């Protein structure tokens, strides 16, 4: 009565139980007398038995066991598997929706930052420039005998210059003009120098080409990831030295950041509240790249990001043997020691 699809395997399992002894659990289908297909679980034990045949005691092997009808159990398993597959499809669809929403929100946020930076430049910048010109005009016409007025105008001029500097810093943080005007290399140099000034940490920079440009989304993503990496270094690494390098590598662009800090904790890279690292992963995933965040042997941290990218440089495009010279891979390697 064993189902023909299970007959060979079941027979082999019984023979193995017979040879090896001990207890074996078998599952197979059988066909009932009414044609129904049932599932059985057979717990089999191979032992020895004594039979009296024609007055002669014979010692031989015996298979003993218990058969349990598990048909209902198998039906439930099949139903759960079907629902599980549907649930996986639903989760995948919802994940895709959330990723699309995240990408849209990120693009909107970057656009808002760019718009705000432009407004600060056009509106507040022009106001501060006009004030500076007016103060300069007044300074030239103040009688030297009116020293208190001259001192006030000098102080006002200093405040205006401070406001201009602060506004420029805010604009650069919102959307570095260098990123669009000159390219990723110049933006990286500026960000590294600003990091060194603010934190008092020595930061050396090596760039393969000051005029190198990448496509907009790749440039923004790399720049934001670099900002996050440097922020993490300033907050957690306790470093005294950082090295940043932007290089061509195998037809691509590699950005490397190293520091001599304490490194990342073993579980920090995957903590749910590690929003900065999560943001890095999401930026990379949206662009079809890959990211690795891992502690280095002997201490330190390694963050490696690889993004498919197009280099846009009218003066010099990297050679790509056997393909379009404008296509390359952008690699961001961040190592903390």
Topology:
Blueprint: H1 7-20, E1 22-31, E2 37-53, E3 56-69, H2 71-141, H3 147-174, H4 177-181, H5 184-199, E4 202-207, H6 216-237, E5 241-249, E6 252-259, H7 275-286, E7 290-295, E8 301-310, E9 327-336
Tell me about this structure:
The chain is of the alpha+beta class and 337 residues long. Helices cover 50% and strands 27% of the residues. The protein is built from 7 helices and 9 strands, in the order H-E-E-E-H-H-H-H-E-H-E-E-H-E-E-E. It has helices at 7-20, 71-141, 147-174, 177-181, 184-199, 216-237, 275-286, and strands at residues 22-31, 37-53, 56-69, 202-207, 241-249, 252-259, 290-295, 301-310, 327-336. The chain has a 6-stranded mixed beta sheet, covered by helices on one side. Strands 1-2-3 form a 3-stranded antiparallel beta sheet. It is elongated. It starts with 6 loop residues before the first helix and ends with a strand.
